[in-house]
């Protein structure tokens, strides 16, 4: 990002952000609530109503600030959300088939201890920890190259925060595909 400015409506939410994250690195944004961490991630992902007012977002050397969110997803952007919506009538199995990852579901779900969820509707009735594991599994299944984590510990009780970190670890660890180096950017207000 170079001198990135963004707004929601007429309210400026980012003011001259400069950040370089080389491929394969992990960076964490730490700061108080309201400091713009989630706004930065939403702007990078291209989520409405956030809009870039000036500056650049570069991905693999290409400017993407004008690229729509669906195209960014096809380029390899992926994001977990603090409070993702449930998808009534869309099973985990149907979702993974729709993104072309049905063949990977059982193995990747087992790695995250997320077995037996194939026939359940996405996020409907999931506990806080199950939601976080689903959000991480979604990034695995999409084979996201740029993984954006918006407060992955939110909604998870203190005794399970380490489990969320353990679920994220395989994205970075020895079992991560060498052909697909992942870059992670996350934010938290909890240390």
Automatic annotation (TrEMBL):
Domain ABC transporter, residue spans: 14-152
Record's keyword annotation contains ATP-binding = yes
Key words, A-Z: ATP-binding, Nucleotide-binding
Residue ranges of the TM segments: none
Lineage: superkingdom: Bacteria
Family in the record: Belongs to the ABC transporter superfamily. Ycf16 family.
Q: What is this protein called?
A: ATP-binding cassette domain-containing protein
Organism, scientific name: Sphingobium yanoikuyae (Sphingomonas yanoikuyae)
């Amino acid at each position: 990002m170079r001198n990135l400015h963004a707004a929601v409506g007429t309210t400026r939410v980012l003011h001259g952000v400069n950040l370089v994250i080389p491929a394969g690195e992990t960076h964490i944004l730490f700061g108080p609530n309201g400091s713009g961490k989630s706004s930065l991630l939403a702007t990078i992902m291209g989520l409405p109503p956030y809009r870039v007012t000036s500056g650049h977002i570069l991905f693999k050397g290409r400017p993407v600030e004008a690229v729509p969110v669906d195209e960014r997803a096809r380029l390899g952007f992926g994001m977990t959300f603090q409070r993702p919506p449930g998808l009534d009538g869309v099973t985990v199995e149907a979702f993974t088939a729709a993104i072309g990852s049905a063949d990977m579901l059982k193995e990747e779900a087992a790695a995250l201890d997320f077995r037996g969820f194939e026939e359940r509707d996405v996020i409907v009735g999931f506990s806080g920890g199950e939601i976080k594991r689903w959000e991480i599994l979604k990034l695995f299944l999409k084979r996201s190259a740029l993984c954006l984590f918006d407060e992955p510990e939110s909604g998870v009780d203190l005794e399970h925060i380490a489990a969320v970190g353990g679920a994220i670890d395989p994205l970075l660890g020895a079992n991560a595909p060498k052909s697909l180096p992942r870059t992670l950017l996350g934010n938290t207000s909890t240390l």
